[in-house]
Design brief:
2 domains; 178 residues; single chain; four-stranded antiparallel sheet; 22% strand; 4 strands; alpha+beta; 4 helices
Length: 178
Amino acid sequence: MFNILAPVVITAASIGLFFMQTSPILDRISKEKIENLAYSNAEKSSEQYQELLKAKNAVFNQIDDAKKNALNKLLPDSIDNVKLIIDINQIASDKGMTIRNISIKGGDTTSVGPDTRPYGVATLGFSVSGPYKTLKDFLVSLQTSLRLIDVTSVSFSSGDKDQYEYNVEIKSYWLKQQ
């Protein structure tokens, strides 16, 4: 009986020992296969994004510098108050006006909480004087300039004959660095 029972017990023990030893190894192998598949997918996605980036850069590099400068003037990547004032003063001087009493306010303070917009806003106030028609021409020139500007307020006071003092408030925008 021992001759029959001993081989059965040894075989059962060896089968049990085999599965107890190999089961954790097989589990680890299957986890590593899943992890390897995830890395392969990430690598393929990375290659696709690299190709997309190369294509976008090729298109961007085909744009001539004049158009890039115009785009940068339309929506710059930082608020350059001095350049903005110079641009507006140039438009005003083309119309025979000079800007005075310049005041600059930072971003919008009307919202509560953190500002998550991808762009910034600055408010610029100034005064000009001249006839009404000249102001209209000045505002049209501001409207058609490359710089993205919203005229938010215009007030006036009377002065000499056909000369008025105008207080203008505008908002200018720029892209925030990310």
